[in-house]
Design brief:
This is Transcription factor NikR nickel binding C-terminal domain-containing protein. The chain is of the alpha+beta class and 130 residues long. It is built from 4 helices and 4 strands. The chain has 2 domains: 9-44; 50-128, ACT-like. Chain A, domain 2 (Alpha-Beta Plaits), CATH 3.30.70.1150. A 4-stranded antiparallel β-sheet has the order 2-3-1-4. The radius of gyration is 17 Å and the shape is globular.
């Protein structure tokens, strides 16, 4: 199946550099692998149940969203155990370490992704809690 996508040139250039450096045979192959990884990451987020420990890493433009992020983090203090924060100019990188209900962790991830000033949100479930 053929499809078309609108991708900024700088992202496409970086993507091409990456798959070529890894020795993949084509952009199509690299795109299929990237899409598959996205599906696997999303499926894990959707299907994990019960209690878990997780790390959520996200970047954001500090001045545009800091107040709302602090409010959100207070709303999720039942699952947020600690945070780590780095400044880089106007952008920040933050990692939130969570433990508790996967439903609440998933809800936090989705709310972080809703902010326009948040660039990326990645979650990694470290281990299920028995």
């Amino acid at each position: 199946m053929r499809t078309s996508l609108n991708i900024p040139q700088e992202i496409l250039d970086a993507f091409d550099d990456t798959w070529q450096a890894e020795g993949l045979e084509s952009r199509s192959r690299a795109a299929r692998e990237a899409i598959q990884e996205y599906i696997e990451r999303h499926t894990q987020l959707e299907t994990i149940e019960g209690e878990a420990i997780a790390a959520i890493a996200f970047d954001y433009e500090h001045t545009l969203v800091i107040g709302e992020l602090h409010t959100l983090q207070h709303e999720f203090e039942d699952v947020i155990h600690t945070t780590q924060h780095l400044h880089h100019g106007e952008w920040c990188l933050e990692t939130v370490f969570c433990g508790g209900s996967t439903h609440r962790i998933r809800e936090l991830v989705y709310q972080l992704r809703d902010f326009d000033a948040v660039g990326r949100v990645n979650v990694m479930f470290l281990q299920p809690v028995d």
